[in-house]
Amino acid sequence: MSPVIYNSHLQFVQSPGYITIVAEMVHDARIIPIGGERNPAAAAQRKWMGDAIGRWEGDTLVVETQYFNNWHSLRGLPVDNITITETFRRESDFKLIYGFRVNDPSVFAGEFYGEYPLSRINEPIYEYACHEGNYGMFGILQGARRLEVMSEFEAGDESEQ
């Protein structure tokens, strides 16, 4: 999860044994099992968003993800051996602190990490759709009305001749 300029809202849904993180942008959903063991077949399956396992360390959710699909890349770098460890810690009723550590000894000299706040919103998360900021329908209808007026105008000119 990287910060983006727009459509960056996330929804967390907790159910017995799982946490699902739904992103507004492209509507990706990460279904993360809590506790338990990693599936031995995960290395062969290599999912687009990797194979994630979550656990609680006190009040912090820790998610370790490996085995990303080889079509996926980290800014053009291979992800064959990468491990991303994420943390989600509630700082207040309106703020989560998201942290991440990226480790891949075959690509990087050492691991790197960072964190940033995620703010709670009191609005619905909408389906992601590329539709020109809701102005598309208005423009289509306005253009159709213009064509209708032009047709009526041209029809009037023909009847006068």
Structural descriptors:
2 helices, alpha+beta, three-stranded antiparallel sheet, 161 residues, five-stranded antiparallel sheet, 2 domains
Number of domains: 2
Order of helices and strands: EEEHEEEEEH
Terminal residue distance: 67 Å
CATH architecture of the largest domain: Beta Barrel
Mean pLDDT: 84
Shape: elongated
Number of helices: 2
- Rg computed from alpha carbons, rounded to a whole number of angstroms: 24 Å
What is the helix content? 10-25%
Strand order of the largest sheet: 4-5-6-7-8
CATH topology heading of the largest domain: Lipocalin
Class of secondary structure makeup: alpha+beta
CATH class of the largest domain: Mainly Beta
Question: What's the total count of β strands?
Answer: 8
How much of the sequence lies in strands comes to: 35-45%
Main sheet: strands, sense, barrel: 5 strands, antiparallel
Instruction: Provide the low-confidence segments as ranges.
Output: none
Describe the overall structure.
This protein has 2 domains: 10-128, Lipocalin (Beta Barrel); 131-161. It is 18% helix and 36% strand. The chain has helices at residues 42-45, 136-160; strands at residues 10-15, 18-23, 29-33, 51-57, 60-66, 83-92, 95-103, 112-119. The chain has a 5-stranded antiparallel β-sheet, with no helix packed on it. A hairpin with a 2-residue loop joins strand 4 and strand 5. The longest helix is centred in the C-terminal third of the chain and has 25 residues, at 136-160. The chain starts with 9 loop residues before the first strand and ends with a helix. The relative contact order is 0.11. The model has no long low-confidence stretch (mean pLDDT 84).
